[in-house]
């Protein structure tokens, strides 16, 4: 006999109560956590209890003890790393995904999940201007989306070089020349490492971190100097420090002239393709072969959700697919989810993406991305007029890198901001300097948050100068 709803009711009601309190606290609470993991350990650890606790009490215990260790990432005053908040429809859809508890491996077994994720995938292709016949896989994040795209690339490039990767593995295979820009995200190197492809050749970038297309052309010539060879080029839409976009039209043209597979890491930048005014940033991007993005960044669905898009469905399904007699595959050609992602068992994480897109529509997504960039521009303007503040990048998208004279001052400003907790921004290093890195990625960030953020930075800098505690 199945349990029915009764055993769940109190626990779910407690979860709704705690979630509502948490969300209600976002506009005013300090952003940073008040306790470190080691301080929280006692509340959650110790001996495994011999006997259990009623479900609603577990939820109450969990929420009240976790509270001091939560970062207000859903707050409009959170500007750290590149982290989006959560749209209401996406959050509620995510809760439904948990209650439906579908193992979204096979179209045959969980048709509703497959239909929703396929619709979401199709909408993403339309929204981002990517080839309509591409395969779309919903993975945990851009790291795995990069991995997935590059795994498909490896399969295709080796097949075209006459090598049977599936049968013979990588040992003795033709070398794949991997070429990346100087300022690619580290997860590209990680994915290449996972795939046994080694360290890439690095091509110089300009002052905003955009790959130099002429240098790329030379690197491609060098890679092919002793004859045809498999080549993989990784480009980037959205530089972590500057928000800059690689020059896609030129870089893809030279790559294609050398018969390279082109992968684009667009973890947060691919979303610029949804905004007509940003067409110049993403022009030509649709001519690549694979793309990675994060729905948990600029689209604002709950963690976790990345998206892998691969034009060559055969390559993707060969790299990721598996056959087993007990898995009943749908024969209509759309491909099971498990053929497009590294996992077998999986959560239908594309469902919150569908809900986000359905609630915003094409115009709403464009407006959301436009607003993120406009808030970043406004914040950069407010910071640039402060005495002693240098905005180091051309702020054309959602990212700002700021320095305050010498590195020690910049580090201290960042530390004071975090200690103060009004806003949250993290330090980094860019072009040999310590920087305060600001990312505007939350759909709720408004003009008041921007003013608060500028004021918090001004106060922190003044504190460093005066030594005030
Ligand atoms: C350009 C870029 N690529 C990849 C990643 C990794 O994304 P994830 O943490 O979702 O795996 C990030 C994260 O910020 C990023 O900015």
Low-confidence stretches: none
Mean pLDDT: 96
Order of helices and strands: HHHHHEHHEHEHEHEHEHEHHEEHEEH
* Bound heterogens, unique: pyridoxal-5'-phosphate
The fraction of residues in strands falls at 5-15%
Just name the CATH architecture of the largest domain.
3-Layer(aba) Sandwich
CATH topology of the largest domain: Aspartate Aminotransferase, domain 2
CATH class of the largest domain: Alpha Beta
The helix/strand class is alpha/beta
Q: For the CA atoms, what is the radius of gyration?
A: 24 Å
Distance between the termini: 63 Å
Number of domains: 2
| Total DSSP helices | 16
Shape: globular
The helicity comes to: 40-55%
Count of beta strands? 11
Strand numbers in spatial order across the main sheet? 1-7-6-5-4-2-3
Q: How would you characterize this protein structure?
A:
With 469 residues, the chain is α/β, with parallel strands linked by helices. 45% of the residues lie in helices and 11% in strands. The protein folds into two domains: 7-72; 93-356, Type I PLP-dependent aspartate aminotransferase-like (Major domain) (Aspartate Aminotransferase, domain 2, 3-Layer(aba) Sandwich), CATH 3.40.640. Helix 1 (6-25) packs parallel to helix 3 and helix 14 packs across helix 16. Pyridoxal-5'-phosphate (PLP) binds next to helix 6.
